[in-house]
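Researcher: We are triaging several targets before committing to wet-lab work. For this one, the compound of interest is adenosine-5'-triphosphate. I'm pasting the protein sequence and the ligand SMILES. What I need is the predicted three-dimensional arrangement of the protein with the ligand bound, expressed as structure tokens, so it can go straight into our comparison scripts without reformatting.
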Amino acid sequence: MDVQPGIRFKCCLGQENRNIFLDSPVSLDQLKQKIVAYFRKPNLNILVVDTEGKRKRLRTQDDLDQCLKSVDAQSSSTAVRLVLTSSTDTTSPPPPSPFDELDSAGLRDHPPFDRPYRQHMGTFQRAELRKEPSARRGAAHRRMPSDHNPHTLDLPFAQLTVNDVDPPLPPPHHHQHHHHPHRADAHRPSSPPPGFLDLPQHSVHDRRWSSDVNGGGEFIPETDDQPDHRYEQPSRTVRSTGSAHSFHSFRSTHSASSTQSVYSGGGSQRSQGSHHAVARVSVKDVFTRDDTESGVFDHESQVRSALDVPDRLRSGTYPRSSAPPGHVAVTRIGGPYTLPRERTSSSTMAGEGMHRVPHTAVPTQSHFSAAVRGPTMPVRWRKGKLLGSGAFGKVYLALDDGTGAEVAVKEVELDAGEQPSGGAVEALEGEIRVLSGLRHPRIVTYLGTKRTPETLSIFMEYVPGRSIARRLRDYGAFYIDVVRKNTRQMLQGLEYLHNHNIIHRDVKGANVLVDSGGNIKLADFGAARQLQEIRTVTGFKSMHGTPYWMAPEVVQGKGYGRRCDIWSLGCTVIEMLTTKPPFYNCEAMAVLFKIGSSNEDYKACIPDDADEGCRELLEACFQRDAQQRPSASALLSFSFVN
Ligand SMILES: Nc1ncnc2c1ncn2[C@@H]1O[C@H](COP(=O)(O)OP(=O)(O)OP(=O)(O)O)[C@@H](O)[C@H]1O
């Protein structure tokens, strides 16, 4: 199938950032229409920003064509940066953009920011990590902690290169993407503004669908144009139908005429080795203003997670007791609400096969009270007990004195005498600011940061049930059903992160937290590189960590992308089955060679008595060639996790 070329327009109006994708050839009218639709302001001036930061007004189709020509000339770039200003204010300077903020903070030219802001924030870096001057490295080794643990590793930091090795996606091809069985997820639509859902074009069915972090993320393409159609999942995603709609008046959206039957597309699909519940809902009935205020509005994952009935009902995330009779309690981003339950003869509450949510679903306003918003960044807070310590700092429980909620706070010591240069701390703060826009039931929510001269405190959602690693220590290896459920939920979290261009980089049992309902949340994602940088400058200047979960391309310093998380996920599955990751009986240095050496067959580490489906998934995860590893989305269709 021919895929038309497409152009991404990164639009910035004041603090609001949107990505708009348009197929070529792009017409100015089309662009203007999109801008009006997305920013809900008519007659905006459109200024194009060139690579040197100069702005030029786009008035005519010719201007646009010229501009697109210059984009074509730079083969690596298909993005056009636009600044929008109010047309009533043609003389005043354009509104501030995140780039301006970085400029004024002197950060933009700092190495971590030598790429566009969002690309950096999206954590897919092509830039090599800065190399430590050798003298400093020497000092680093002198200052390495003496408590050597054979299972941890101190490497000169500069050995790691972070590259987005994932090849680019073909450009978007709207309107027809549903029809191609293999490319259904190979298109990325534009990110809608809060309260706006451009569903006709960008249905939730498109799993490439991704709103940006705080509305303006750099979209780094996924890798599924790689030949892993064999892993393609036919119809697992939730389809959403509906028209563009404001979420700002919740009550008015519940008219009896809404279309929102939820049904499975032909019931369960065991032929693919899995069940696929295909739901059709009117998203306007699922989301409210609360969702749109969270800074990110990921319709697909939210719809999917809201309707991931098998998982939730099995695991008890939905507090059934909280639902009135005849209703299903549903945990939404930020909290629960209820949907009337209606069973059909082929449905079960475990979600096997068909389940229906009739159009009379009526969440009430009371369900959307403060309780559903989840934790927020505390203004005044008190430190509680130590929850644990890691390579980068200690994690404490803390009480938010404003709301009474408990949150977790990771304290990273900053060496006051040797402040990190080059804005490493600011970079981390910026990263957390962006990451705190992410919301998904399978990831720990970052809330924000606070800094004193001695400490950087990173606030997070508190997950009470301890990590998988800790549970393995306490109880021993998990039964296969728990491994299955945890794996599925980890994949859901990874899918969400990867769709938002975040590589976790440190997937392992210690970074998978379990809540009191036995559901997992991925922790410690996205910020590892900045933390590493801070520790590099202020602490023992080395890469400190444990290599057992590392992917070969990471160890080999080749540069890596999202698929390194898939390898680590495989190691974590082994960890859950046996309590230890592969080769844990070897010292850290030895295991590095094993990981790096193509002679070492990781598949041999799969326990002999492993479930057939589990073996299939692990073999896929342990493909040495990262490109051969399926994506998180593809793995979600494997029989083991269904
Ligand atoms: N949001 C959280 N809620 C509850 N407990 C947490 C939270 N974040 C971390 N913890 C606890 O604190 C411990 C230390 O976490 P931290 O992220 O500092 O280190 P780690 O992940 O164990 O190790 P490393 O830093 O080497 O990856 C974790 O093992 C976990 O038990």
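Researcher: Any quick observations?
Model: The chain has 17 helices and 18 strands.
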